[in-house]
Amino acid sequence: MNSATILLQWLPLFFLLFSTSVSSSPHKIPKLSPLLETILASTKPGSLSDDFKTFFYNQTLDHFNYRPESYAIFQQRYVINFKHWGGANTSSPILAYLGAEAPLDGDLTGVGFLTENAPRFNALQVYIEHRYYGKSIPFGTLEEALKNASLRGYFNSAQAIADYAELLLYLKKNLTAQHSPVIVVGGSYGGMLASWFRLKYPHIALGALASSAPILYFDHITPQNGYYSIVTKDFKEESESCYRAIRESWAEIDLVASQPDGLSILSHQFNTCAQLNKPSELKDYLDSVYSTAAQYNHPPNYPVTQICGGIDGAPKGSHLLSKIFAGLVAYKGKKPCYDTDQYNYPTETNIGYGWQRCSEMVMPIGRGSNDTMFPPAPFDLGNFTKDCKTQYGVSPRPHWVTTYYGGHDIKTVLNKFASNIIFSNGLRDPYSSGGVLENISETVLAVYTVNGSHCLDIILEKQSDPEWLIQQRSTEVQIIEGWIAKYYADLLLLKK
Amino acid sequence: MNSATILLQWLPLFFLLFSTSVSSSPHKIPKLSPLLETILASTKPGSLSDDFKTFFYNQTLDHFNYRPESYAIFQQRYVINFKHWGGANTSSPILAYLGAEAPLDGDLTGVGFLTENAPRFNALQVYIEHRYYGKSIPFGTLEEALKNASLRGYFNSAQAIADYAELLLYLKKNLTAQHSPVIVVGGSYGGMLASWFRLKYPHIALGALASSAPILYFDHITPQNGYYSIVTKDFKEESESCYRAIRESWAEIDLVASQPDGLSILSHQFNTCAQLNKPSELKDYLDSVYSTAAQYNHPPNYPVTQICGGIDGAPKGSHLLSKIFAGLVAYKGKKPCYDTDQYNYPTETNIGYGWQRCSEMVMPIGRGSNDTMFPPAPFDLGNFTKDCKTQYGVSPRPHWVTTYYGGHDIKTVLNKFASNIIFSNGLRDPYSSGGVLENISETVLAVYTVNGSHCLDIILEKQSDPEWLIQQRSTEVQIIEGWIAKYYADLLLLKK
Question: CA nearest A111: which of A185, A176, A163?
């Protein structure tokens, strides 16, 4: 049983509602954050040690308002592991994982950066769940919270990082650890939160490790086709013939679909669990398969290599769509059937982030007519807005992220402002197109690997990890050690 | 007619609702921001040149929420003076005055820092009114807005600086002035907003001049008696006998008041416009008189000197309270009567800032038993909270300002983060006790004068200005020129 088969059973958890192809609906974007291994690990029964203690904090619903309703509190889950902490007396550090668009559970075992480095840093490990996910949903289930037009309004990033601020200050006070430096860590959307947290709350976090954080994928700072250009490049560099096959397959699918009984033929050919109702169901599914493979194109199996192995390895003279199916099977393993709806399951992540995208997290991801191996699908803000309005009754604010957090001219702006942020990326991750890939100053640093994938640096280490990945992680640890050493030196100076 | 007499007729505008003595009600604090000259100037008919053009922006009511109500917009007033601007082609600077807790009108002519330096900087002058003041009150009058428990919740500093962010970005886009550096300027509460704006929105403002901004007067970073200690020091340094007279007068007032018909005697002695109902009315009034005199102890008249001149100059053998009255008359001029309610008029500033103090701007200003020339009046958060709750139905959040903006350990925190902020102060200003008086880094600087008063550096220049004041202003201009020169150099490098 190859690892693809093992992953398979967990896959439904990983993908966002809008993860399906941008081709059918121009406002849909690829999944953002899932840490495959993370979630995988969380599902292993008994894998979480007793050292992880769960708490709940009475969190303020609305930090930026003083209406009576704003004073409502909700229970926010956080988890602490004290095992390796050197304690408040020695001002030993706090590694704080900032939860993202999923329940916290998987992060506790999956985010290796904390569990593996806590002993080295003598660090307290703190994990905070993002509001409206997991056990931190105000007043009921996520579905209920999102149905309530008033309640869902509080579900946004500024409120979320204010939660982290309030909770971290509470913890430091509670542990008499006022002088313990806090390093915040996050991946993908959570990585954006980590970097934004350091920018907005430098008095609370000494530094941030922002893994695979596409903070420049807003407001057209990054070209809309950035994401799919990298997916394309990943496949093309793996195999020119594989890339060509995929590129040509979309028209072929449409052609077959347009024939009498064409959808039945396609359903049969791709062994779909349910009969296809329209060709876009298959195309969206394949789009997600390729995008996911590229985004999580990690060692030792390299999904892109697996898919191209299947496509290129199909018997000579195979029909184009047989090759495509062979690629699918090589990646997902032999299955009784293939669920083309797999990426659309109503998981918390899909549901919750669907709202976040329709309110503020507006990443204009799209494709031009001939710039990727996918059919054209330009991002259309008008349609996107219309759909969001239909679904939620309010319009997205596409400029808010750059208004509040910045992004334009980031090098000029942050070169003489800010410090202690690592933007880590793997260049094979399509989201790296919206990442910070250049050092901004001596302490705002880009640490990337040419062959890395999404959030690879912060997930659990493996025996099979290649040297470049080991090196990336080690660089990150050394940089953070430098921040902490400098902080202690300044603290000593201050006390003298 | 001395300048005190001239000022007199405008004084009712200047003071906050809670400006009366802390002695009678321990949660009342001295007025925060008024720029005497500013408001004075605004009332001179025809003093505003036609170069000031008024506009209104459709501002977002709630930046941090996505409830349908959050999408409401209100009209925010802003004023532009294009006269001296070098234009977008040359990326000439923008000097942006961030409105504070008053209508904008007075600032247009009163804030000399903009009008006097615009030609030197070839700068566009922009003045933005703070939400809920002047012509920028959402949906009606301030009274109506504050009566509405839901509507007043949006009235806070985080929303206000987000207004400034949104509006400045809109203006830069509208003027195709994306590369024009913005310097934000503010005084007192507005000075806090200016420094916080640079911290939160470094991508919008290149730098900030924060005049007399007591950003450390929160959460007990500054000792509670900081304010009144400086008032006391100002008087003591002016005249030991004057200081002693004031110090002893409170008990004397109580003694007279406790006698039969004592309040009539006091009313007559101080020539009050209305009969006193309790001794605290007189004591609160005198407290405000002394505090105001110290806060605005500016050249050439130096109100503290005036008061002490009156007290010390009273005929030999005068009764203590006659001396006190002589001090009052020397400062305020000979009047038909003295209005002890003068500082409590329901001005917009008094009404609006009354709410702001009861929600987030919780400055714990108080006095111990023997540390000032005033009767003891420790700050009592419990009482303060109770009173606010009675008045508005919600509790203040005394830790929010330090949670959101920081303040604790400011030197350590901002030394390696942030840049381009001037904290200017005059050490005779009682609010300087909560100001930043030490350089934090090479570009986060404290520029103060030993003899300066509240916001003196940013108000209109006068022929009589002493050398140390001219020097302070010139230092500030040079620092800002340095920021802008560096910015242009970096811009050029970038374009190469």
Answer: A185
**pLDDT of B311:** 98
- Tell if the CB–CB gap between A169 and B403 is shorter than 8 Å: yes
Tell me if B420 and A418 make a contact (CB, 8 A cut-off). no
pLDDT value at position A18? 35
Nearest alpha-carbon partner for B4 in B296, B389, B385, B436: B296
A63, A70, A149 member nearest B68 (Cβ): A149
3-state secondary structure of B128: strand
What is the distance in angstroms between the CA of the first residue and the CA of the last residue of chain B? 62
What is the enclosing helix (H) or strand (E) of A210? Answer: strand A207-211
CA distances B37 to A41, A296, B63, B292, Å, are 67, 64, 34, 13
pLDDT at residue B494, as a whole number: 75
| B488: contact with A, CB 8 A cutoff | no
> Which DSSP string corresponds to A101-128?
SS-SHHHHHH-HHHHHHHHHHTPEEEEE
How far apart, in whole angstroms, are the C-alpha atoms of residue B496 and residue B479? Answer: 26
Could you write out the DSSP letters of every residue in B411-456?
A: HHHHHTS---EEEEEETTSGGGGGS--S--SSSEEEEEETT--TTG
CB A164 within 8 A of CB B404: no
Number of helices (H) and strands (E) in chain B: give both, helices first: 18, 8
A301 in B contact zone (CB under 8 Å): no
**B58, B60, B64: best mutation site toward chain A, by most A Cβ within 10 Å?**
B64
Q: How far is A15 from chain B (nearest CA, A)?
A: 24
Considering only alpha carbons, which residue of chain A is nearest residue B181? A413
A249 three-state secondary structure: helix
In angstroms, the CA A491 to CA B276 distance is 55
Burial class (CB in 10 A: 0-12, 13-18, 19+), A384: buried
Please indicate if any CB of chain A lies within 8 Å of the CB of B157.
no
Say if residues B182 and B395 touch (Cβ distance below 8 Å).
no
Q: What is the pLDDT of residue A492?
A: 87
| CB-nearest partner of A64 from B159, B406, B415 | B159
Identify the burial level of B390 via C-beta atoms within 10 angstroms of its C-beta, where 0-12 means exposed, 13-18 middle and 19 or more buried: exposed
Verify whether residue B387 is a known catalytic residue. Answer: no
Cβ atoms of A220 and A463 within 8 Å: the answer is no
Asked if A289 and A310 touch (Cβ cutoff 8 Å), the reply is no
pLDDT at B7 over 50: no
What residue has token string 């899909």? A350
Interface of B with A in 468-487 (CB under 8 A): 486-487
Nearest CA in chain A to B202: A413
Residues 6+ apart with CB under 8 A from B46: none
Q: What are the angstrom distances between the C-alpha of A121 and each of A107, A151, A207, A331?
A: 19, 40, 14, 38
Q: Provide the whole-model pTM.
A: 0.93
ipTM of the complex: 0.92
- DSSP letter assigned to residue B342: G
CA B235/CA B240 separation, integer angstroms: 7
At B59, the amino acid letter reads Q
B333, B5 contact by CB (below 8 A): yes
What is the spatial distance between Cα B223 and Cα A115, in angstroms, rounded to a whole number? 42
Which is nearest to B190 in space by CA: B209, B163, B169? B209
pLDDT digits (tens, 9 = 90+) for A215-225: 999 999 999 99
pLDDT tens-digit profile of B336-354?
999 999 999 999 999 999 9
Q: Which of A64, A486, A490 sits opposite B64 (nearest CB)?
A: A64
pLDDT in tens, B16-39: 323 333 433 434 556 554 444 334
CB–CB contact B409 A70 (8 Å): no
